[in-house]
Specification:
The complex is a heterodimer. Chain A has 24 helices and 11 strands. Chain A has helices at 2-29, 32-62, 68-73, 80-86, 91-112, 121-141, 166-181, 183-194, 201-231, 242-267, 271-294, 309-329, 346-368, 370-378, 386-406, 417-441, 448-479, 483-493, 495-519, 596-599, 629-638, 644-660, 676-693, 697-718; strands at residues 382-383, 522-528, 533-536, 539-550, 561-571, 574-578, 581-584, 603-606, 608-610, 615-622, 665-673. The longest helix of chain A has 32 residues, at 448-479. In chain A, strands 3, 4, 5, 6, 7 and 8 form a 6-stranded antiparallel sheet that branches. Chain A has a 4-stranded antiparallel sheet with strand order 2-11-10-9, covered by helices on one side. Chain A is an alpha+beta fold. Chain A has 3 domains: 1-163, Four Helix Bundle (Hemerythrin (Met), subunit A), CATH 1.20.120; 165-408, no CATH class; 530-663, no CATH class. Chain B is 26% helix and 33% strand. Chain B has 2 helices and 8 strands; from the N terminus they run αββββββββα. Chain B starts with a helix and ends with a helix. Chains A and B meet through α13, α14, β1, α15 and β8 of A and α1, β1 and β8 of B.
Chain lengths: 719, 130
C-alpha cells in the first residue's frame, strides 16, 4: 500500500509540473486547449493527493506498523479518534495534509473561474501548481510519509499525549486551511500582475477565498488558545510563543487585506498596497509553516530538528523575489484611479486600520525574530518576553478596537463632522455611561488599559447595535415587516455589510474577555495534604481526597494511569467539586524496569475548569509520586519479566497505596473573570464571517448574467 | 494649502510616526531582552536565559522547590538550578529547557514560572539515551 502512496505523490508532482508548463504555454500562445488541459491537470493533482491521503489515513486506522509514520505516531491502544489525528501530528503527514488541502482549494477556485478571468486564470494555475510542486518535492525528496520499515514493530510508540485533546484534532487542519487558503488570492494577484490586468477582477474572484481562509486561520488560533488553556497545565491562553506569533502574523496582514481590497473595489485605489499585502500574507503563511518545522527559534512547538529548513527558506526567498520583482515591474500599471478626498472618509480610516494592523504585525515579527536579530547584531542570542509584547501590542490593540467602532459608520469619499456626530452621539454617550458605571461599581480602575478597553468595547457594541437598529427600523417602515423578519431580510440583502458588523462585535467581545481575564486574574500555587484548605479570590478550596485511576481517564485519551484529586470549592454558600488529575503514559525505554516504564513516559495535566459566564475557576494538580519511587524500584527488581496481567495487578497495588497514604500534592488555582467571552467572541466572528462569505442572491444572479454574456461573446466570436 | 504641500506634510507626519515607532521598537526590545546562554557561559551578577538539557537523574523535589541540573546541549558543563512555580508537562530527564534567572552562590536561582520545556520531536527510546 505504501507503494501506491509514493506513486501517487510522484505522479502528482509530474502532473503539477505539467500543469505549470501547459498553462504558461497556453497563456503565451493563446491556445485555450492548453490552458484547459493545465487546469484539468490541477484537478488530477487533487485526486492523487486525496488518494495518497486516504492510503495513509487507512494505514493509521488499520494500525499498519510497516509504515514508519504509523509506528512512530500511533499504537494499537491509541483511541480511534486520535489515530485519525495522528496523521498530521508528524512532519511528513502534515506536509501531506498541506498539499492535499492546497490542491482541493486550487481545484475549487479554478473550477469556479473556468469561464471567467481568461487572462489571469492560466497564470494563477501555474502559481498554484508551483506551490503544490514544491510541497510534493519536499515529501518525495526528504520527508516521504510513505517510508516503510523492513521489520514492522509489534506495536507503535503512540501519539504524543500532549496532542491528545479534542481541540488538537481540529486545530492543525484549521490553521493549515487558513494558510493554504491564502495561496488562492496570492496566485490570482500574481496572475493579474503577469497578465497586466491589475483591476479588481482578481479581487472579486478570490475575495471569498481570502475571507474563508481568514476565518479558518482565526478559528485555528482560537482552538490553539483553548488547547493551551485546558491542556498545557499552566492556565494561560496566549504566551507570545514564536509559533503562536507565526499564526497571528498572516492573520493580521490578512485582516488588513480584507479591508483594503474594499477600497480598491469601490474607489480603484491602493492597488500596489493590495498586491503587496496578499504577497506578504502568503509569505507569512509559509513562514508560519517553516517556523513550526525548522526549530530555528526556541519554542515549545519546535518539534526537534528538521531536515527541510533550508528548502523552505529557499522557497520563501523565491516567493518574495518573484512577488517584489513583479510588483516593481508593474508599478506604472498600478496607479490609483482616484485620490483621497478627505481624511474623514471610510477609505482614510481603512488605510489607518491597515497601518495599525501591519504595524502590529511588524512589532510581533520583530519580537519573534529578535533572538536572530540580536545574534546577528551583537553576537549573543537574546530574547524578549511576554511583558515586552504586552507593552507594545496593548496600545495598538486599543487603537484597533476604536477603529473597529468608527470605520463602519463612515461613508466613502467624505463625511462632514456634523454627520459624524449624528452617528456617534449615542455610542459616545453609551461609552461615557459605561465608564461611570465601571468606576462606580467595579474595581476596573485598577488597570487603566483594561478600563479603556471596556469603554471601547461598549463603544463598538453600541455602534453595531445602532446600525442594526437603524437599518431594521428603516426597512420596517418601508415594508411593514415584523422586527425579526426585517432584520433577517436586511442582513440577507447586505451580507457583506452586516456580516462585517457581526465580526466587529465579535472582536470587541473577544477583547472584553482578554482585557478582563489578563488584568483581573487571581492565581495561587499551593501544596496541600488531604483535608487542607486555602483561599483564592474568596473561593474556599478544600482537598477532599486523592484519586488514582487505572485506564479510562476522564478525557478518553487512553492514559494507563491517572492520579488526581477531588476538591470542594465554596463561595457565598455555593458549592462545586473539581477533579483535576494528571495522566501518566508509559515509555519504551529499555534502560528502565518493567514497572518504571509505566510511569516514566510523558505525563500531562488534565485540568478541571468550572466554566461560567462571569468567571472561570481553573485547577490543575501535580501529584508527588516520589513516595512511590521505592516500591516501583522494588517491583522492577522482583517482577522483571511480569506478564501484562501481573503488571496491572502491581500498578493497582501502587495506586491503592497512593490513595491510602497520599503525599502532599501541588495545586494551581486560577480564578479569572470573563475568559469564556474570548471564545464566545471568536464564535461571533466566525458567524459574522460566514454571513459575509455566503453567496447572496444578487451575486448568484450576477454570476448567471456574466456567464450568459460570456457565452454570447463566444457565440459572436464564432459567428 | 495647495495639494502638493499638503501631501508633503502628510508624508513627513507619516514618516516621523514610522521612525518613532521603529525607534521605540528597537530601544525597548534591546533594553527588555535577556540573553540566552549555555551553562558554561553564565557568571554571577546579571540575569540570563539559561538553555540546555536536563541532566539525567538530577531532578529532585525539595518542598515547593524543584531542583535539577542543566548541562550544555553539546557538552558536560552543568549548573544546579533551583526553581519554583509551574512545571511544564513535557519536563523530564534529557529534555531541552529554557529558564530565566540569576546565578547566586553557584546555584542558578530561577524566576518563578519561567521554565519552558521543548516538545520532543518523537518520544522514542533514543530520546533518553542521547
Amino acid at each position: 500500500m505504501a507503494g501506491v502512496g509514493s506513486a501517487c505523490l510522484f505522479i502528482a508532482l509530474l502532473t503539477a509540473l505539467y500543469a505549470i508548463a501547459a498553462s504558461v504555454y497556453g497563456a503565451r500562445s493563446g491556445r485555450r486547449e492548453w490552458v484547459t488541459s493545465g487546469r484539468r491537470a490541477i484537478y488530477c493533482v487533487a485526486g492523487l493527493c486525496v488518494i495518497a491521503f486516504g492510503v495513509l489515513e487507512s494505514a493509521f486506522l488499520r494500525s499498519d506498523f510497516s509504515f514508519a509514520l504509523v509506528a512512530e505516531g500511533s499504537s494499537i491502544e491509541t483511541p480511534t479518534f486520535y489515530k485519525v489525528t495522528a496523521l498530521w501530528a508528524t512532519q511528513d503527514g502534515s506536509l501531506l495534509l498541506w498539499v492535499t488541502l492546497l490542491s482541493l482549494f486550487s481545484t475549487t477556485v479554478l473550477f469556479l473561474t473556468r469561464r471567467s478571468l481568461r487572462d489571469i486564470a492560466p497564470w494563477a494555475t501555474a502559481v498554484l501548481g508551483g506551490v503544490a510542486a514544491f510541497f510534493l518535492l519536499l515529501m518525495i525528496g526528504w520527508e516521504n510519509p510513505f517510508d516503510t520499515l523492513a521489520t514492522p514493530p509489534a506495536d507503535g510508540v503512540g501519539l504524543n499525549p500532549l496532542l491528545r485533546h479534542p481541540a488538537m484534532m481540529i486545530h492543525p487542519p484549521m490553521l493549515y486551511t487558513g494558510y493554504v487558503g491564502f495561496s488562492v488570492p496570492f496566485a490570482f494577484a500574481i496572475g493579474a500582475l503577469v497578465a497586466r490586468r491589475p483591476g479588481a477582477d482578481w479581487i472579486r474572484a478570490t475575495r471569498r477565498f481570502a475571507l474563508i481562509a481568514w476565518t479558518f486561520l482565526g478559528t485555528g488560533i482560537m482552538l490553539g488558545a483553548l488547547w493551551s488553556y485546558t491542556e498545557l497545565g499552566w492556565g494561560g491562553y496566549w504566551a507570545w510563543d514564536p509559533v503562536e506569533n507565526a499564526s497571528l502574523m498572516p492573520w493580521l496582514v490578512g485582516t488588513a487585506f480584507l479591508h483594503s481590497i474594499m477600497v480598491q473595489e469601490k474607489r480603484g485605489m491602493l492597488k500596489v498596497w493590495n498586491v503587496s499585502l496578499i504577497c506578504a500574507t502568503f509569505t507569512l503563511a509559509l513562514l508560519g509553516t517553516f517556523l513550526v518545522r525548522s526549530g530555528i527559534l526556541d519554542s515549545i512547538h519546535a518539534f526537534g530538528a528538521s531536515t527541510i529548513g533550508v528548502q523552505f527558506l529557499v522557497f520563501i526567498g523565491l516567493v518574495v523575489a518573484l512577488s517584489a520583482g513583479l510588483i516593481i515591474s508593474r508599478l506604472p500599471l498600478l496607479r490609483s484611479e482616484a485620490k483621497l478626498d478627505s481624511l474623514l472618509s471610510r477609505e482614510a480610516f481603512f488605510l489607518l486600520n491597515n497601518l495599525v494592523l501591519v504595524g502590529l504585525c511588524l512589532v510581533i515579527m520583530w519580537g519573534t525574530f529578535f533572538p536572530l536579530i540580536s545574534e546577528a547584531l551583537t553576537g549573543t542570542k537574546a530574547s524578549v518576553g511576554p511583558p515586552w509584547f504586552d507593552r507594545l501590542v496593548t496600545p495598538l490593540a486599543l487603537v484597533l478596537v476604536l477603529l473597529t467602532g468608527i470605520g463602519p459608520v463612515l461613508a466613502w469619499r467624505r463625511f462632514t463632522p456634523a454627520a459624524l456626530w449624528r452617528v456617534l452621539a449615542v455610542p459616545i454617550a453609551a461609552t461615557g455611561a459605561a465608564l461611570v458605571l465601571l468606576l462606580a461599581f467595579t474595581d476596573a480602575a485598577d488597570s487603566w488599559t483594561s478600563l479603556l478597553m471596556f469603554c471601547l468595547v461598549a463603544f463598538v457594541l453600541t455602534v453595531v447595535s445602532q446600525e442594526l437598529w437603524r437599518g431594521t427600523a428603516a426597512r420596517r417602515t418601508m415594508t411593514g415587516e415584523s422586527w425579526p423578519r426585517a432584520l433577517g431580510r436586511l442582513t440577507g440583502r447586505n451580507r457583506r455589510r452586516y456580516g462585517g458588523y457581526l465580526v466587529h462585535a465579535g472582536i470587541a467581545v473577544l477583547f472584553l474577555g482578554v482585557a478582563a481575564s489578563s488584568a483581573f486574574v487571581d492565581q495561587r500555587d499551593v501544596r496541600l495534604r488531604p483535608g487542607d484548605s486555602f483561599e483564592v479570590n474568596g473561593y474556599q478550596v478544600t482537598y477532599r481526597e486523592p484519586t488514582a485511576k487505572l485506564g479510562g481517564d476522564s478525557g478518553g485519551t487512553g492514559a494507563p494511569i491517572s492520579f488526581g484529586a477531588v476538591l470542594d470549592v465554596r463561595k457565598d454558600g455555593k458549592h462545586f467539586v473539581l477533579r483535576p488529575s494528571r495522566n501518566y503514559y508509559s515509555t519504551a525505554d529499555p534502560s528502565l524496569g518493567t514497572i518504571s516504564r509505566l510511569f516514566e513516559g510523558e505525563a500531562t495535566s488534565e485540568v478541571d475548569v468550572r466554566w461560567g459566564l462571569t468567571r472561570n475557576f481553573w485547577m490543575a494538580i501535580r501529584p508527588d509520586i516520589g513516595s512511590l519511587d521505592k516500591p516501583i524500584r522494588e517491583a522492577d527488581a522482583k517482577f522483571a519479566n511480569a506478564s501484562g496481567d501481573v503488571q496491572a495487578l502491581i500498578v493497582a497495588a501502587l495506586a491503592e497505596r497512593y490513595r491510602r497514604d497520599p503525599p502532599p500534592a501541588a495545586f494551581r488555582a486560577i480564578s479569572s473573570p470573563f475568559v469564556v467571552w474570548i471564545w464566545i467572541g471568536g464564535g461571533i466572528v466566525v458567524l459574522g464571517a460566514l454571513v459575509a462569505a455566503w453567496p447572496s442572491p444578487e451575486a448568484r444572479l450576477r454570476r448567471v448574467r456574466s456567464l450568459y454574456s460570456a457565452r454570447l461573446g463566444q457565440e459572436l466570436s464564432r459567428a | 494649502m495647495d495639494p502638493s504641500r499638503k501631501r508633503k506634510v502628510r508624508l513627513v507626519v507619516a514618516l516621523t510616526a514610522a521612525v518613532l515607532l521603529a525607534t521605540a521598537l528597537i530601544y525597548t526590545s534591546f533594553s527588555a531582552s535577556t540573553e540566552a546562554s549555555k551553562p558554561s557561559e553564565i557568571k554571577p551578577g546579571r540575569s540570563y536565559e539559561l538553555t540546555g538539557k536536563v541532566v539525567n537523574g538530577s531532578i529532585r523535589h525539595d518542598g515547593d522547590d524543584l531542583r535539577f541540573r542543566v548541562r550544555d546541549r553539546d557538552g558536560t558543563t552543568s549548573v544546579p538550578v533551583s526553581y519554583t512555580g509551574v512545571v511544564p508537562d513535557p519536563f523530564r530527564d534529557g529534555r531541552e529547557v529554557i529558564v530565566s534567572g540569576e546565578l547566586e552562590h553557584g546555584t542558578f536561582v530561577a524566576e518563578r514560572d519561567s521554565l519552558v520545556t521543548k516538545c520532543p520531536s518523537k518520544f522514542t527510546k533514543d530520546e533518553q539515551s542521547s
